[in-house]
Amino acid sequence: MNDADLLTRFPPTNPTTRLLWTAIVDVGPRQDLGTGPTGQRFMVPILGGQFYAGPSCDALQGQVLSGGADRQVLRPDGVKELDALYEMQASNGDVLTIRNRVIVDETREPERYAMSVISVTAPAGDLGWLNRRLILGSLQSARPARPAVIIRAWEADLVPQA
């Protein structure tokens, strides 16, 4: 079978998404860590916050725990790479470790590009399925209203959501 026939037989399936949670994450002042080989480095402390369940995801709500941090690199091309590591405690007591890797491009108009891939490490049990999913995220600044960011997390799938 040639490539054209193969691609006709297996057409693309558009990904679908389902909102899992929206988090409001309180952050501290950005700390300058100096220039490294890939650009200017910063760290932003994560002070806490709350997260709220998306539709039909009732267990995904609770507190963002303090103690995490967002490491940032401002690349020479002006793009920011963020690598945040923190914990969220769900209402059932489970503690989720979140790694959120974000690309921020301030040059896009009319609104900046700030999208991410979120990895969740969850304990076995009710929320263990999060360990087996690709989660896409978005990031919005809540400034000047509050020193916080709003993070939304979506489960990506190739099966339409019911």
TrEMBL record:
InterPro entries: UPF0311. It comes from the Bacteria. PANTHER family: UPF0311 PROTEIN BLR7842. This is DUF3237 domain-containing protein. It comes from Pelagimonas phthalicica. The lineage of its organism: Bacteria, Pseudomonadati, Pseudomonadota, Alphaproteobacteria, Rhodobacterales.
